[in-house]
Amino acid sequence: MDTATYILFALGWLGAADIALFHSVAHGIRSHPDSRVELVVHSLRGPVYAALFFLVPNFVLHGTWFWLLIGLFALDVAISVGDFAIERRSRQFLGGLPSGEYVLHMIMAMVFGALVASVVMTVGNWGSLSTGIVYQPARVPGAIRLLMLLMGVLVFVSGVQDLMAAIRLPRHRRSVAVGGKTA
Amino acid sequence: MRAERTREFCFEAHVPEPLGRVFALHEDPEHLVLLHRQGTAVRMLHHDGHVRVGAETWIEFNLGGLVPVVMGFWHIVYDPPRRFGERMIHGPFACFVHIHEFEVAGEGTTVRDRLQVAVPWQYGGDWALRWLMGPLLSRVFVRRGRALRQFAVGGGFKQRGGQ
After folding, report:
1. Is this complex's ipTM strictly greater than 0.90?
2. Structural domain tally of chain A?
3. Residue B43, domain CATH
4. Considering the entire predicted model, what is its pTM?
């Protein structure tokens, strides 16, 4: 899955930019009570992408393993749909979702589509073969596979941090702008 | 728990208007946007209509024209017409305390902004504060002082009917 590995690598950088720039620096959603549900949704991405970063660059997946990979893709689509559905309300108090984040999400969705298409075009009959997982690294520089392993660890940790923040945050923030102004 | 280093900054601007008028302009959170029309744009998100102790003001400033950073402040000092101040309760800094001081200077007023700022280690800590945020804050407050003087020269204080 050489092409898929490169595409997933690019998706990893885009996701890292999204978390660092928009979720953390711009909106600090881990300390925003209105974003509790969004944080729970984000936390699900941690294990999904940790698995993708581990499996795609390193293994050939046959039978049930292949269908589990397809299941991960389907789960990520469900997470993204859920994320889009709740984001508007989650960020309303913070001035709404930044334009740059909208654009980044759109690009990430397209790159994700390219990832799925690349896998589907590469695998041939993996789904109908007897179940097995074979270590067969993608033909990409070793440094990229190593970085992707690191990305997997970091995205998992980020997911855990999101979940912990969601549990820790109070249910409601203090109401501001009584007699004042809310944009 | 890692302790981030806090740095102090002090910026001064002289305004050719009486202290009462200058304080009155500053104590209305709605006027904050006026002071940031040049350079780093500030969008007012929410405020309680005053800056007395316990009130909150939430703003968004645009970092590099790409990343809109939201900061929420809790007002902690109110001593009219000499000073007021706020502490960050939401935003990317480990610590951000801003005390506004006003002092009679001849027929005008000296406005002094005292800041205590710390950047979290994951955003570069003291290195980022010293080399990135420090110069950025300097530019922001120099422009703010210039905007305040232009506002005074343009008759803005009188139009707003300050004391």
Report:
1. no
2. 1
3. 3.30.530.20
4. 0.86
